[in-house]
Amino acid sequence: xFGFKKKEKVKxxxxxxxxxxxxxxxxxxxxxxxxxxxxxVEAAEKAALLNICKVIIIGNKEVLETKFSKKALxxxxxxxxxxxxxxxxxxxxxxxxxxKAKGMTxxxxxxxxxxxxxxxxxxxxxxxxDGIVAGAVxxxxxxxxxxxxxxxxxxxISKVSSAFIMEVPEGKPYGENGLMVFADCAVNIDPxxxxxxxxxxxxxxxxxxxxxxxxRVAFLSYSSKGDPDNPEEKIQKVKRAFKIARRMDxxxxxxxxxxxxxxxxxxxxxxxxKGSVLGGRANVLVFPDLNAGNIGYKLVxxxxxxxxxxxxxQGLRKPINDLSRGTVADEIVLVMAITALQSKAxxxxx
Length: 350
Known about the structure:
Layout: H1 16-23, E1 29-32, H2 38-49, E2 54-58, H3 61-65, H4 70-73, E3 76-79, H5 85-99, H6 106-113, H7 116-125, E4 131-134, H8 140-151, E5 161-167, E6 179-183, H9 193-209, E7 216-220, H10 233-248, E8 253-258, H11 260-264, H12 266-272, E9 284-286, H13 290-303, E10 307-314, E11 320-322, H14 329-348
Parallel strand pairs: 1-2, 1-4, 2-3, 4-11, 6-9, 7-8, 7-9
Antiparallel strand pairs: 5-6, 5-10
């Protein structure tokens, strides 16, 4: 995906290239804790050469220095934890202060900081880095545990959620600029109406800041503007979520509750929800629960040949993103670019 050929030689434009181009020269410092993995090493080389970010990779310095070209090394910092005595001590003291109320001892803090994932998270907390990309080796729980313990959620957000950026196949009329955002497909099993509203607002901001599209958010359900007095709680939750989201950010174009076809097909919207502000042109789809979201994105990915990148985590004070353990180097590069853009958006308060 991200070769180093000149653009005029590329036959087909990949819309994800736009995200990478936008991140170039971001200056963001992105940490890769899994420096022992060859996919991560390859991604570090590519990201450094593309100047997406300042790459910080954790691992054996002597070994890693032989893995990178001289040009890439000028944009890569290799951190070997065993050689970082003063910083380990400083991070351990901070971690102990953060977690002593939860029963953590000083000895436990020292041992945890020696773990690359915790070390990377402490770098982020100390503002020695701007974002983290991990999960090629670590399980999701091991990526998220230090994130929740140390970085925590943004002040106005009750729970971390996720979104997938979906690249629509060429020639299909859905989304905008070839992209759609699906949420939440990976984290929250059964979000409350408040949490669902937050997912909608955060996903809209992701669509704007990362994908450069004007967000048009649809809160999905199995009915489209049905009986307002329908007592079915699953429908009422979506209705409430839409109203809460509108109060949270009235500048976002959004509507709900809508069936999926009413949300993305204008001719269907004209029949089922005439007058909807979306007009059947939603580009951000908010699923009512994890069952619907996970099933929906995987079906679209496999049957329609849509490329899916994610889950991109939303709602943390600073960006940390979790990779699939089946990831490849180009996907890691793309997530690094997204993380770099998230770090800049969080600084601007977007």
